[in-house]
Amino acid sequence: MSALTQSPAWKALQNHSKSAASLKMKELFATDPGRAERYRLETCGLYVDFSKNIITDETLGLLRDLAEASGIDQAKEELFTGKKINFTEGRAVLHTALRNLSAAPVAPDGQDVMPKVRAVLDKMRDFSEKIRSGAWLGFSGKPIRHVVNIGIGGSDLGPVMVTEALKPYSRDSSGQVAVQAHFVSNVDATHLAEVLRAVQLDQTLFIVASKTFTTQETMSNALSARAALLAAAGGDTADAMASGAVAKHFVALSTNLEAVAAFGIDTANAFEFWDWVGGRYSCWSAIGLSIAISVGFGHFKDFLAGGHDMDKHFRATPAQGNLPVTLALLGIWYGDFFDAQTHAILPYDQYLHRLPAYLQQADMESNGKSVGKEGSRVDYQTGPIIWGEPGTNGQHSFYQLIHQGTKLIPADFMAPAQSHNPINDHHRILLSNFFAQTEALMVGKTLAEAEAELKASGMDQEAIKRLAPHKVFEGNRPTNSILFKKLTPHVLGSLVAMYEHKIFVQGIIWNINSYDQMGVELGKQLAKKILPELEAGEKDAKVALKHDASTNTLIRKYLAEREG
Ligand code: F6P
Known about the structure:
There is one protein chain. By secondary structure, the protein is α/β, with parallel strands linked by helices. The protein has 3 domains: about 10-70 and about 315-445 and about 475-515, Glucose-6-phosphate isomerase like protein, domain 1 (Rossmann fold); about 110-300, Glucose-6-phosphate isomerase like protein, domain 1 (Rossmann fold); about 520-560. It has helices at about 5, 10-20, 25-30, 35-40, 55-70, 70-80, 95-100, 115-135, 155-165, 190-200, 215-235, 235-240, 245-250, 255-265, 290-295, 295-315, 325-335, 355-365, 400-405, 425-445, 445-455, 460-465, 490-510, 520-540, 550-560; strands spanning about 40-45, 45-50, 145-150, 180-185, 205-210, 250-255, 270, 340-345, 385, 410-415, 480-485. It has a 6-stranded mixed sheet with strand order 1-2-11-10-8-9, sandwiched between helices. The protein has a 5-stranded parallel sheet with strand order 4-3-5-6-7, with helices on both faces. α2 (about 10-20) runs antiparallel to α5, α9 runs antiparallel to α18 (about 355-365) and α18 runs parallel beside α23 (about 490-510). The protein is globular, with a radius of gyration of 26 Å. The model has no long low-confidence stretch (mean pLDDT about 95). The structure holds 6-O-phosphono-beta-D-fructofuranose (F6P). 6-O-phosphono-beta-D-fructofuranose (F6P) binds near residues 153 and 211. 6-O-phosphono-beta-D-fructofuranose binds near residues 154 and 212.
C-alpha cells in the first residue's frame, strides 16, 4: 500500500466518492442557483467553466486537501526556482524560465540562467527577421520562402501545433505568407519526400531540431535533406559544400553543439538550449525558431508572454482560485475515484487541430509512469490516455461513445468567441454546437422523455417500446468549457502553460517523476539490434535471428516480401 492511498486525504476522497457516485449534475444545478457562478475561473484571457462536473463543494474541499497534503505549494517553488525535480536524471525543470519576461533572475545552483536565455531569444529575433525580410539568401541568391523543421516528439509537436494555431499571424495585411512552414518528423521517407516535393530547395531553410542531436529519425531525415540540398546546389558534393550551401540552408536547435558541428552545421548557425528544458516543454525555447520565422518574433514573444502570465497565476494563486490546480484535481477525481481511463481534448477551433496530439505527448510522456519516487509500483491510476479531435468533426465520429457508451470520458471543450475567419454564420453554428454538446452530455435524455418524443412524432406504442431505450442518454458526463475571446498568441501561450502546470500538479500528487521518459528506451534499443539484422538479411535470408517466434517470423516475412 502506498503512502498516497493510505493518506487521510485520499481515504476521505475514497469515502466521499461512494456517495458522489450517485450525484446527478442536473439536480445539483436545479438545487443550487449559484453553482455556475461559483465553479468557474477566469484568468490570462481564459474563462473556464467547470460546473458541469460530478462535484460538490465538499468534493472540491477534499481534493484541495489532497493537493495540500501532497505539498503542492513547496513543489511549485521547487519547480520555479530550479530544484532538480527530474530526480532520475538529476535535472532542473525550467521551461518557465524560457518565458520569464520579468526582470527576476532564475538561479538554480546560484547561477542566473536568464542572461543566456535572453541571448538566445535575441539571436532568434535577429535570425527570424533576416529570414522573413528576405535578407538571408540561399545558394542561388534568392530569399528563403520555406522553412522545414526536421525533428520529432517535442522537437516537432510544439512547433507544428503552434504554427498551425497561429496561422492567421503568418500572413501580412495583403494575405501573403512570408515564409511557409513545413515539418518532417517520421523516419518514413514518405514524410520527407512529400515535403521536398512542395518546396524549392534553393529557397528552403532546414531547421534540424533535436535536443540530443542523436535521435535516429531526425538524423536520418537531416542527412537525406542535406543530400537533396547538395544535389540541388549542383556540381559535386565538394563544390556544393565549398559554395557554403549547407551553411546557407541548415541551422540547428540543440543542447548538443558538439554533435551539431560534427553534422557540418556551423555552430554560429546553432541555437542553443539546455538540459533543464524537457523535449515536450521546449516549444518556448530555441525549438520555437520555426514558430518565430512563421509568425514573426513579436508574435512568438506574445506567446511567451501568455505562458509567463499563466506561470504568475499558477505560482501565486492558492489552490481555490488556481486554474491548473483545479483542472489537475478534477482529472484525479475521475481517474482515481471514477476509474476513467481517458481524457478528451475537443477544440472548437480548427486552428487548434494539432492540440490533442501535442497534449498527448505533453501529458502521456510526462505522467505515463507506474513507479513512484521511492521506486515501488504505484497502487493507483496515474496519467490518462489523452485523445481528441476538433469539434465538430468529432461529433460525427466518436461522440456517440461519449454520449451513450459504457465508459466515462471527461472532456475539455474549448472555443473562441471570435473567429479569425468570420464567414457567413459559420462561427455561430460552430458555437451552437460547442454549447449544445456539453449541455447534452450533462442533461442527457430520460426514457420518459424519449418515449414522449417518439409519441409526439406519431409512432405507435409497440414501436416506441422497442426504440425508446436506444434513445436514452444517461447524461451526467463531465466536461470543462474553456472560452477565450480570440485565439491570439497570448491566449495560446496561456492555454499551453495551463496544461503544463496541470500535468505538473498531477505528477506531484501521484508522486511520480513527470520529467523523464524512460519508457521510450526499450523499443529504441531493440530497433538498434534489429536494424543490422535487416541489413544482413537482405544479403542472406537465412540470417540468424534471436527474437521471440513471432518477431522472427515477421522479420522473415518482411525479408521475403521486400523485393519483387
Ligand atoms: O520520444 C522520446 C524523446 O526523447 C522525446 O522526449 C523528445 O521530445 C523526442 O524524443 C525527440 O528528442 P530530441 O529532441 O533529442 O531529438
